Structure formats: structure tokens, C-alpha cells
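Please fill in the sequence for the structure shown.

STRUCTURE ENCODING:
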């Protein structure tokens, strides 16, 4: 990858990270696992992290083909729920599924695993939770919130740079 970054195709789900703020004992990572979702047509996996306070977090980047994502998401939810074993769980990431078009998948995730609510009917990035109190439902940032000044144009007026082609999603959840 150092010689040819495009070779590993990380723009297609080659990296899943769970970032945890340090400082609080409850935020200490006590376990980390990875679950392969598929290898074809591209490798997709789910990262799973358990914190000292019992919270389990799983994140993934599902396949871009809708039929593949519709198979991967229930399998990912099943694996994450089994691993969490009744502890509070967050499953999030780029699902590449819109509830407006694949509502049956989101209904299955909620009925079988208690994972809800999706971000928005047309969104593909989601934060679903089970065993947590939803204080503020998941929502996408507006475009202007994810824009930063162009660092190559110091002192000159310039157009802002949008940090990603995906709007970050945030939710406020509380442990019981």
C-alpha cells in the first residue's frame, strides 16, 4: 500500500475503525473482534468493539450492490447481537441501503434484534441501537457543517472543502 495506495482499494470498505476517547475508565476497550461479511465482489467486514462499561459497538461498510447489502446487513446484525450477548449495542456505518427502498431489512433488524431507528428514509449511513435510550435520533449533518476552509489558500478567499461525500451521522444515546 505504501508503494501503490490504490492497490488495496480502501475506498471500497477496506478500513473500519472505532474511535474511543481516552480518559474515562468506562471508555477503555476490553475486546475487539472482526467479522468477515463477504469477500466477493469485494472484501467487506464488520469491526466490533466492547468497552469497559459494557457498551458494544459494531461498524461496517456494506457492499454497494443493494441485493448484496440486503443479505449482509441481517447477517451482520445477527453476528453483532450474538457477540453483544444482551449488552447494549450500536451498529452503524455505511449500509448502502435506504429505508425507503429496503424497508423490510430495517424492519427485520428492529423486530429480530431491536436495532433502530434508521437515520432517514433516503440515507445510506446509519446508527442503529439496542438496549440504549435514544435521546436524539440519528441525523445527518447539513452540508455546511462538514465544510472547512481550503488549507492551500491561506489569506485568500476560496471555496470551502467538503470533508467527505458522506454526511456524518450523529445520535445521542444513553446507557440504561
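FILLED IN BY: designer on duty
SEQUENCE:
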Amino acid at each position: 500500500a505504501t508503494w501503490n495506495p490504490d492497490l488495496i482499494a480502501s475506498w471500497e470498505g477496506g478500513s473500519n475503525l472505532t474511535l474511543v476517547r481516552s480518559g474515562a475508565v468506562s471508555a477503555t476497550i476490553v475486546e475487539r473482534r472482526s467479522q468477515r461479511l463477504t469477500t466477493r465482489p469485494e472484501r467487506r467486514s464488520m469491526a466490533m468493539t466492547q468497552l469497559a462499561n459494557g457498551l458494544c459497538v459494531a461498524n461496517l461498510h456494506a457492499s454497494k450492490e443493494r441485493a448484496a447489502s440486503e443479505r449482509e446487513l441481517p447477517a451482520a446484525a445477527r453476528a453483532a447481537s450474538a457477540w453483544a450477548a444482551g449488552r447494549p449495542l450500536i451498529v452503524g456505518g455505511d449500509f448502502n441501503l435506504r429505508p425507503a427502498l429496503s424497508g423490510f431489512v430495517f424492519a427485520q433488524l428492529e423486530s429480530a434484534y431491536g436495532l433502530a431507528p434508521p437515520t432517514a428514509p433516503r440515507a445510506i449511513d446509519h446508527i442503529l441501537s439496542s438496549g440504549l435510550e435514544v435521546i436524539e435520533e440519528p441525523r445527518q449533518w447539513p452540508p455546511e457543517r462538514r465544510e472547512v476552509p481550503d488549507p492551500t489558500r491561506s489569506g485568500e478567499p476560496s471555496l470551502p472543502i467538503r470533508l467527505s461525500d458522506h454526511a456524518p451521522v450523529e445520535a445521542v444515546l444513553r446507557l440504561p
